[in-house]
Design brief:
This protein is mainly β. Helices cover 15% and strands 43% of the residues.
Length: 171
């Protein structure tokens, strides 16, 4: 009888913690998102991130400040995963899961693929970089309130947010 009571209590605690965890995710100000695409080369790209909203703020000032390492999203660190070795804007990146950070700038963004995928931007150090690329931001085709990543079969990846598009190629 004692075993049944103990098992019932353990099951109840597990169910309660699961409900609270799900409620916490649903109350996040920035919703989670995942984009997954298998490229023409056969490599699969997965970007797992949270979507901050512009909410009338200025990118580069109040959000994603220019010149500072940023987590490239909200909530937990953004991850970038490739199933095979690829070239990102012509530079080699081994298959694996990376933390994705950036240093936004008015005329240039630095995209960082960190060897550790679970480190916050304020704790990321350059020695943990797997790769850094520099890209030119462009004017987005349309205003996008929630930060969004797109990946097409040809390997074009773009971070689109507000009136900015930050594109790079994965081959």
């Amino acid at each position: 009888m004692k075993k049944i009571i103990v098992l019932a209590m353990v099951a109840g605690m597990f169910a309660t913690s699961t409900v609270f965890a799900q409620q916490d995710k649903s109350k996040r100000p920035s919703p989670p998102a995942v984009v997954r695409e298998t490229l023409n080369s056969g490599a699969t790209v997965v970007i797992d991130y949270s979507q901050p909203s512009v909410k009338g703020r200025t990118i580069g000032k109040e959000i994603a400040p220019f010149g500072k390492v940023w987590r490239t999203g909200a909530n937990e660190p953004t991850t970038f995963e490739v199933s095979k070795a690829v070239k990102v804007d012509g530079k080699a990146l081994a298959a694996g899961k990376y933390g994705m950070y950036s240093i936004p700038g008015e005329n240039e963004w630095v995209i960082i693929f960190g060897k550790k995928s679970d480190v916050s931007a304020d704790k990321h150090v350059e020695a943990d970089d797997a790769l850094r690329i520099k890209v030119k931001p462009a004017k987005a085709a349309a205003f996008t309130e929630k930060m969004t990543f797109t990946v097409d079969k040809g390997g074009k990846v773009a971070l689109v947010w507000g009136d900015i598009s930050v594109p790079f190629m994965v081959k």
